[in-house]
Design a protein that fits this description.
It is built from 14 helices and 9 strands. Helices cover 52% and strands 9% of the residues. The radius of gyration is 23 Å and the shape is globular. The N terminus is likely disordered. It folds into 2 domains: 211 residues; 150 residues, 3-Layer(aba) Sandwich (Glutaredoxin). The relative contact order is 0.10. One of its GO terms (cellular component) is cell envelope. It comes from Termitidicoccus mucosus. It is found in: Cell envelope.
Length: 412
C-alpha cells in the first residue's frame, strides 16, 4: 500500500501496490540503528551472505514475474529461504543475525502452491492460488514457536522484536478476519493492548502503537460499528497524538472526499456518468483494479448487494486504477496500444464478474484523475454516499456494506 507503514504485513492487507505484481511483499523490513555485532565466523558469514543473495535474487530473463512461472519461481525461492534461515538459526546459535532471518522468513513465507484457480492467468493474485493448507498451517505454527523464542532471547534488536510482534499480531488478526466473532475480536483487542504496552516506552513507540491501533479499528469498522465507535473514543482520549490521529482519520477522509458526490465522466463503455444526478439514491464509488487481490475478493459482495438493492435505489460507480505498463519513453503508438489493451481487459473482467455498473478508466493507475483529486493512496477504497449527497463512509466493505445500504435506503 502506498501509505507509510512499519512492516509489510500491515502494508500487504491491500490494499495497493505500484509494482507490476498484483500485491507485493517488501523483501526486507527496514533496518534499525544499534544492531548487535555480528559473528566473525567465516562459515557464518558465508552462510548469511548466501541467504542475503537468495533474498535479492530476481527471476531469470524470460520468466514473467506475474505469470505462473514467476509465481512458482518465487515460491521455490521462499521455500529455500525458509529452510536456509532455519538452518542458519540451528548451525549458528550464538550469531545474532539468526533472528534477522527468522523474522524475515515470516514476511516472505512460501504459499505452498499446488495449483492455480480458473482465471488466474488473466488476474494473477494470491487469491488465485490453490495452496496446501496443511503445509501452510504447519509452517505458521513453526514460525509462531520461533518468534515466541525470539521474544525471550537476550540478543535481539528493537527492529527484530517489532518485526516478530508484528507477525504474531497479524496472525491474530487473520483469525479475526477469517472467523469473525466476539471471541476473535476480543483476542485481537488483547493483542493490540499487549503490543502497545510492550513497545510504547521504546523508540518510535507512538507510531508503532498507531499502526496496530489503526489495523484493529479498520477491522472493527467492517465487523462491529458500535465497537468501532467506542474504540475511536478511547483513542481520542489517548495522550499520544498518533493515536488521536488514528481516531480522526475517517473524519479527515470524509472531509477530503466532500466533492465525490459531484463526479462526472464518460465511462469506459461510453456511458455518461453524473453522480450528482443520482441524488436521492445511495451511491457506492469503488476505487479498485483488476490486479488488486483484496479488490477482487470484495467483488462478489458488491455484486450481491447491487443485485439485491439496485431496484430500490442503490448505484455503484467504479473508478479503476489499472496498471497499463505504459512508460514515458514509449512511442505514442505503443502507448495507445497498451492503454487500449488494458481498457479492453478491464471491461472483459467486469463483464465476466457480472459488474454492470459504469467504470472510469484513464490508464493512469494511482495517477487516476479522481484518485489524485480525492487523495486515494490505497485500494480497495469505498466511498458511500447517502441520498442527500453526504459522504457517510469510506469503509463499507464486507457485511457492513449491506447493512449501511439498508439503513440509508430506510429499510431497517
Amino acid at each position: 500500500m502506498k501509505t507509510k507503514q512499519l512492516f509489510p504485513v500491515w502494508a500487504g492487507a491491500c490494499l495497493a501496490v505500484l509494482s507490476s505484481m498484483s500485491i507485493s511483499r517488501a523483501e526486507t523490513p527496514p533496518g534499525t540503528a544499534g544492531e548487535p555485532a555480528v559473528s566473525s565466523s567465516t562459515a557464518a558469514d558465508r552462510d548469511y551472505a548466501e541467504l542475503e543473495n537468495l533474498l535479492k535474487a530476481a527471476p531469470p530473463e524470460g520468466i514473467d514475474p506475474r505469470g505462473r512461472e514467476g509465481w512458482l519461481w518465487r515460491e521455490e525461492k521462499y521455500k529455500r529461504y525458509a529452510v536456509g534461515t532455519l538452518a542458519f538459526y540451528k548451525n549458528h546459535p550464538s550469531d545474532p543475525r539468526r533472528w534477522e532471518g527468522i523474522v524475515q522468513r515470516g514476511y516472505t513465507s512460501p504459499s505452498f502452491i499446488t495449483g492455480f484457480k480458473p482465471g488466474f492467468d488473466e488476474n494473477p493474485s494470491w487469491g488465485g492460488l490453490i495452496a496446501d493448507e496443511a503445509a501452510l498451517a504447519e509452517f505458521r505454527a513453526g514460525q509462531t514457536a520461533l518468534l515466541r523464542e525470539l521474544e525471550l532471547a537476550s540478543d535481539t534488536t528493537l527492529h527484530q522484536r517489532i518485526g516478530a510482534a508484528g507477525w504474531l499480531f497479524d496472525a491474530v488478526k487473520r483469525e479475526a478476519v477469517q472467523n469473525p466473532s466476539g471471541e476473535t475480536r476480543e483476542r485481537l483487542r488483547v493483542a493490540v493492548k499487549d503490543f502497545m504496552a510492550k513497545f510504547e516506552p521504546e523508540l518510535n513507540a507512538a507510531e508503532i502503537a498507531g499502526s496496530v491501533a489503526e489495523s484493529f479499528l479498520d477491522l472493527l469498522r467492517e465487523q462491529d460499528a458500535s465497537a468501532a465507535a467506542e474504540y475511536e473514543e478511547t483513542l481520542r482520549r489517548s495522550r499520544h497524538a498518533s493515536l488521536r490521529e488514528v481516531a480522526d482519520k475517517e473524519a479527515r477522509a470524509l472531509a477530503r472526499l466532500a466533492g465525490a458526490g459531484k463526479i462526472k465522466f464518460t465511462a469506459a463503455d461510453g456511458r455518461e456518468v453524473d453522480v450528482g444526478a443520482m441524488r436521492g439514491k445511495v451511491v457506492l464509488i469503488d476505487f479498485w483494479a483488476t490486479w488488486c487481490g483484496p479488490c477482487i475478493a470484495e467483488i462478489p459482495n458488491v455484486v450481491a448487494v447491487y443485485d439485491k438493492y439496485h431496484d430500490k435505489g442503490f448505484e455503484v460507480v467504479g473508478i479503476t486504477l489499472e496498471n497499463t505498463g505504459v512508460t514515458a519513453t514509449m512511442e505514442e503508438a505503443q502507448k495507445e496500444k497498451r492503454l487500449a489493451a488494458a481498457k479492453a481487459k478491464m471491461l472483459k473482467f467486469a463483464a465476466d464478474k457480472k459488474m454492470p455498473w459504469p467504470q472510469h478508466y484513464d490508464g493512469k493507475g494511482f495517477g487516476n484523475d479522481f484518485a489524485v483529486q480525492f487523495g486515494i493512496q490505497a485500494i480497495p477504497a469505498m466511498v458511500l454516499i447517502a441520498p442527500d449527497g453526504t459522504i457517510v463512509s469510506t469503509s463499507a466493505r464486507g457485511p457492513k456494506l449491506e447493512s449501511e445500504v439498508r439503513r440509508l435506503l430506510g429499510l431497517e
